[in-house]
Amino acid sequence: MNTLKEKQAEKQAEKQALNGVDVERLKETIGRLKEDPILARFQFRASNRWLGGSHNCSELRNFHGTNREYNHPEPFHLENDEPDVLFGDDRFPNPVEYVLHALAGCLTTTLTCHAAARGIAIEQIESRLEGDLDVRGFMGLSDEVRKGYQEIRVTMRVKADATADQLEELAKFSPVFDTLYKPVQVTVRIEKQA
């Protein structure tokens, strides 16, 4: 049973949080980043190991941010496979499905945080994503067909105290959206093992 003091603490926490975001902490962080832009530089990392066929596993153990190193309490493991029609065993999502997952998650998180910073209450967010991909590019069958997604469509259904245009503008602060929408330099280097 909650004591009166615990109930008061919960109510105070609810007042400070909007959309599940600690607004005071968010504002403090924004202030520190304005004062020292070095703190805003993050580097996320993944390592991957092939497990045979289309099956491989990525591990996310640590990252750099706010001018220091962080370790996740436990490493995250994300397994990849392909559906049977693409020569896999269909035991895990394929990498392009993870792209849709990453985009949906980042748009949702971004919208939630930016709305909270602006005092906009959100009651519900649901998304549907579709990505069109022509595997002739991946298979090397056509130089005229892009290897990756040709188009991704996102429909977000949001119940909030703001217009659809305002919410769309906030969601587009998403780093994953920006990464997909604008070209980003990706360098691949193969180190041949003896």
Q: What features would you describe in this structure?
A:
By secondary structure, the protein is an alpha+beta fold. It has 2 domains: 20-92, GMP Synthetase, Chain A, domain 3 (2-Layer Sandwich), CATH 3.30.300.20; 94-183, K homology (KH) domain (GMP Synthetase, Chain A, domain 3, 2-Layer Sandwich), CATH 3.30.300. 35% of the residues lie in helices and 29% in strands. It has helices at 4-16, 23-35, 95-117, 135-138, 164-171, 175-181; strands at residues 17-18, 21-22, 43-44, 47-52, 55-65, 68-80, 122-132, 151-160. Strands 3, 4, 5 and 6 form a 4-stranded antiparallel sheet that branches. A two-stranded antiparallel sheet has the order 1-2. A hairpin with a 2-residue loop joins strand 1 (17-18) and strand 2. Helix 3 (95-117) crosses helix 5 (164-171). It is globular, with a radius of gyration of 21 Å. The protein starts with a helix and ends in a 13-residue tail after the last helix.
**Rough outline:** globular
Low-confidence stretches: none
* DSSP strand tally: 8
Radius of gyration: 21 Å
Helix vs. strand class: alpha+beta
CATH architecture of the largest domain: 2-Layer Sandwich
- Count of the domains: 2
Question: What fold name stands as the CATH topology of the largest domain?
Answer: GMP Synthetase, Chain A, domain 3
Q: How much helix, percentage-wise, in residues?
A: 25-40%
Distance between the termini: 64 Å
CATH homologous superfamily heading of the largest domain: K homology (KH) domain
Major β-sheet profile: 4 strands, antiparallel
Sketch the topology as an H/E string, one letter per element. HEEHEEEEHEHEHH
Number of helices: 6
Mean pLDDT: 93
Which CATH top level class of the largest domain fits? Alpha Beta
Strand portion: 25-35%
